[in-house]
Amino acid sequence: MHSTKILVLLSASAASVLAVAVPPSDQNLQARAATVTCKPKTNLSTEKFVVNVDHAKAEAKKAGFTDGKSGYPHLFQNHDGIKWGVHNCDDKKNPLQEYPVYWQGYKKQTVWNKEVKVKEQESTPLRVVYANKKGSIIYCGVMTHSKVEKNNRGLDYFQKCD
């Protein structure tokens, strides 16, 4: 009986020690940016299209709703019926905008300049899509043209990047 009490006390002590929360060490954590991968149905380029979501959001914010000399940003009519999974983006009341973005590791150009004509910039098949909710930018996602040529020019319909 006495040994049973000791065993119960030891078990309770061990459980309370194990239940103590240990604060996470910031030294062992690595910050990872969320990314999306774009996989065009036909990719004739040698590129792998991985886009940093924070970068895409920043580009949308920078672009705003007024087009520049490049013609971007402009309305995205979503004729392909892409479902974004974001309420304000799937609600037809909020107009969608599209704006070119580049992928991680692309060295020739890292950001689209809306004040420079398209033919004077590097091609990108990728677009950040965002909604205009009463003047606020709501990030919807990133999409790619379904066919990408060797020079990274996009053709055909759009498809959502995951």
Automatic annotation (TrEMBL):
The active site is at 74, 98 (proton acceptor), 145 (proton donor). It comes from the Eukaryota. This is ribonuclease T1. It catalyses: [RNA] containing guanosine + H2O = an [RNA fragment]-3'-guanosine-3'-phosphate + a 5'-hydroxy-ribonucleotide-3'-[RNA fragment]. Pfam families: Ribonuclease. InterPro entries: N1-like (IPR000026), Ribonuclease/ribotoxin (IPR016191), RNase_U2 (IPR048269). It comes from Colletotrichum sidae. Gene3D superfamilies: Microbial ribonucleases. The gene is cla. Its EC number is 4.6.1.24. The keyword Membrane does not apply. Residues 1-19 form the signal peptide. Belongs to the ribonuclease N1/T1 family. Disulfide bonds join 89-140. Keywords: Disulfide bond, Endonuclease, Hydrolase, Lyase, Nuclease, Signal. One of its GO terms (molecular function) is hydrolase activity.
